[in-house]
Fold each of these.
Amino acid sequence: MDVGAVVCDVFGTVVDWRTGVAREAARLLGPDVDAVAFADAWRARYRPSMEWVRSGGRPFVPLDVLHRESLPSALAEVGVAAVPDDVADELVLAWHRLDPWPDAVPGLTRLRRRFVLAPLSNGGVRLQVDLARRSGLPWDLVLGAEVVGHYKPDPEVYDSAPRLLELAPSRVLMVAAHTDDLAAARSRGLRTAYVHRPHEFGGDPVPALTDPGADLSVGSFEELATALGC
């Protein structure tokens, strides 16, 4: 595969959002709140909040703003009426403190020996920088939604990677654990690799083992690095 750059979805693909958000919720909200149910409730508001931007219903704002706005209803779903502003702000920063899957850093480090490496995420620039600094994610640069003012799966996000990296779309490999993300990338001419993440939602539901439309389907970033000769 003639690839010059590897760009990655982050939430669920590189980092374990569910465990990290639940951990911070347990710390900040206390033992009487079902922290995992809260993490799931908050994540369920992720796509609808972005859709309002994508549909033109409001100007682009970074994901931190959308997370802050959807927080009260997610809290209410698990029986929390309200929290002080400082606690709400700390909860939003939970998304900046997520842990990578165990294979992510070693696999990405191998990939970076050969390819330009970047996130292509709906998370904001500062969020991606914080995740990288916290866990040693070896990005060469940050790409994604805030860079172009659009959320995936808008084509502008996928088009930005080959444009900014000065590569043909077919020389950019999009890596994700979500088949819809990969389908949108393929529609813009990018190559695609699927990473199976069976525990993203705690094992229920279990995502597909492979993506038949992808160039590669693997079980880890280390397996991807091996497949790409790294």
Note: Strands lie at 5-8, 15-16, 99-100, 116-121, 143-144, 172-176, 191-195, 216-218.
Amino acid sequence: MALNENFRIGRSALLLLLNEEDEQQHERLANADWHYCTGKVGSMEAHKVVAAVETAAKNNQIINKDLYREGHALYHAIIEALHGVTRGEVQLGSVLRTVGLSFSVVRGSPYENSEEGEWIAVSLYGTIGAPVKGAEHETIGLGINHI
């Protein structure tokens, strides 16, 4: 049950997010037959962040919108990533915080044994802070879940 050293799904999601213009990263993911997308979201509401990532994943056929288990796996990966962004408390507007985030979603098989199945990773990077321009700082989060 060893992870494939060349295809770490969380690392791939972070590199895609932080180096979106890196053509080698896009080629590597495509050659591995992994599916991915990127996007941006800004909000004072955590549910809007979840909705933006879910919508992008569905619109880009990263997950099958008709299969509950795929949406469920994506949801948990998003929430785990949001825990990193919000330092453990997935609250924004109710505690006067807002985020401006870029995100990536990557789906693939990170294990050497293909019977381990597919996994999904969500990475979030951007700013978080009080809803006052200039009162924010950088933040990052990563969530990984099996499908």
Note: The longest helix spans residues 68-85.
Amino acid sequence: MANETGWHVVELLYNCLPERFSSGNHTDVCVLQSVKEDVANIIAPLMVRPITRWPFFAFLGGAMFCLLASSTCHLLSCHSERLSYIMLRLDYAGIAALISTSFYPPVYYSFMCDPFFFNLYMGFITILGVATILFSLLPVFQNPEFRSIRASLFFGMGVSGIAPILHKLILFWHHPEALHTTGYEVLMGLLYGIGALVYATRIPERWMPGKFDIAGHSHQLFHILVVAGAYTHYRAGLVYLKWRDLNGC
């Protein structure tokens, strides 16, 4: 009896789905006639075809790995010189992982219906991210003379995301979700870019040596900006998921 009732409810909901999700129009038996179309659009993808979440989870995994590696580095780097070298290289690898996985949600959900550009952008950022992670693990990478190179390398990874974002805007300029996500991505890029600039130039302690040894120095500001950028990108990812859940290709 319970199963029959459950199937009856599903059937009635199916009859109320928007045209994209239903093969026929059965409004005569619809029990949700007064419900607005946008409510049905929320129900429909959950019943029919929710979009895959792995690119979004990959980004969350990269962000958590970055923050965990950084926390571990700050906690254990004072143990010994050898362990400090290992932790610093792990910290740089975490930054590279965060930047590369940040590309996955916008690239996947923007070009999921275009295999050529999907593979092009996803392949490029994956190869670049793996190469940067491997380079980050080299002992020479943490030498002080490579400080500007480190910042430039991470900054260059972020700048490479301009191409798919502009491409997305050209393809979906008439979709408000494309503009919405681009706003988040521009803000994320600014936060990451400012963080890299502060890290490389050692602002503000270079202006007033000794005044920011405990709080307010460049490395702390860098971490705050990175967390803010990651959260901004998280908000963009939620917009992508809702957009593709409701509209598909």
Note: Residues 2-47 form one domain.
